[in-house]
Amino acid sequence: xYRGDAVNGVDFTPQARKPDPRRLVRAYxxxxxxxxxCRAFTTGGxxxxxxxxxxxxxxxxxxxxGQRYEELADEIDRALSFxxxxxxxxxxFRTVEFYSxxxxxxxxxxxxxxxxxxxxxxxxxxxxxxLWIGERTRAxxxxxxxxxxxxxxxxxxxxxxxxxxxxxxxxxTRPPVTRG
Length: 180
Known about the structure:
- Helix content is about 40%, strand content about 5%.
- The chain is built from seven helices and four strands.
- The strands form two sheets. The protein has a two-stranded parallel ribbon. Strands 2-3 form a two-stranded antiparallel ribbon.
- A hairpin with a 6-residue loop joins strand 2 and strand 3.
- The N and C termini lie far apart (about 45 Å).
């Protein structure tokens, strides 16, 4: 059964469909590296609205929308200059908050990323700001079998198994971060 690139290979062969835990570890590290790069960009000055012309790289400059982008960037520059002249220089113009979201498709992956909040005692999955459970998560998971043929389960049994896994995982979103 194909459970996603983080678990299986994409080839339609028994060997590629065999779950490989090393793929989950690689996916975790790639995700962490990507989020760290986004954090570096957003906190390192790249999100500053005064850098709006720096955002216009060749891929935009050479596109049909490039001229419209430059006109909009000029308008932003003029507005920022006016606000600066008025004494308004808000921090919000130099940084940006970003959030990550994904489907909690592999509940066994989410479980170790779940922490108990010391103030409320509630569990929070720390793998993203907003997680969702979709129809793929409800898909039947073959029962352990000694034969090589895949087992099948009814949709009701699958939903019950998913509900049971959710209770074990306690996959909920994290509380909003408050600034002090």
